[in-house]
Amino acid sequence: MTALINQGKASGNIVAVGEFGLDYARLHFAPKEIQQIGFRKQLDMAIETKLPLYLHNRDSGDDLYDILLEYRDRLVISQGGDDGNIRGIVHSFDESSDIANKLTSLGLHIGINGCSLKTSENLQVVSQIPLDKLILETDCPWCDIRPTHAGFEHLQTTFPTKKEKQYSRELAKEFCVKNRTEPCHVAQVAEVIAGVKGLDVAEVVAASNRNIFHVFGDLEKIK
Question: The pTM is what?
Fold first, then answer.
């Protein structure tokens, strides 16, 4: 795996290691102890490849933080940093402000998509995350923003949609599939964040773009 990553890194096609992390909502697949062993092994691989992290976190924020704190110095050194900040994104964040603060204290950025914007509590958390730590995501084809979600009231953009059970290239020329997220829906994520923070959408988009380049560096050679 390390050799494959390094090959992709050399060609410019791989810019991070992930998605990996902890998921305590699915302990029937793997107990906490086994997940933590695997997570440490994957962090060792990330250190060897010197790449940023793309992290999964579901109901596991405290343990994720504790393990990352344990690895912090090694990760920062491997990534070429000297400021104590780990380069990486905690994807599809839906935990508390306390967990967000812990993770950003390590230098990590917080990925926000439709699954991060379902409840009023989610929106309160997002409102408190600094703009220079936010990354816009969609998690295609999952995590659409639905009328029952708290974030829906902030939407400005809609897309023509059909109730098809499956995606097809022909359909996609004119329509989205109901409840299927596409890259275009990142605009809606930006609109909700702007709404809860009282900012212009353009300001949110510009900040996310800056943050992406801060995490991943020069992406110009990626085709």
Answer: 0.94
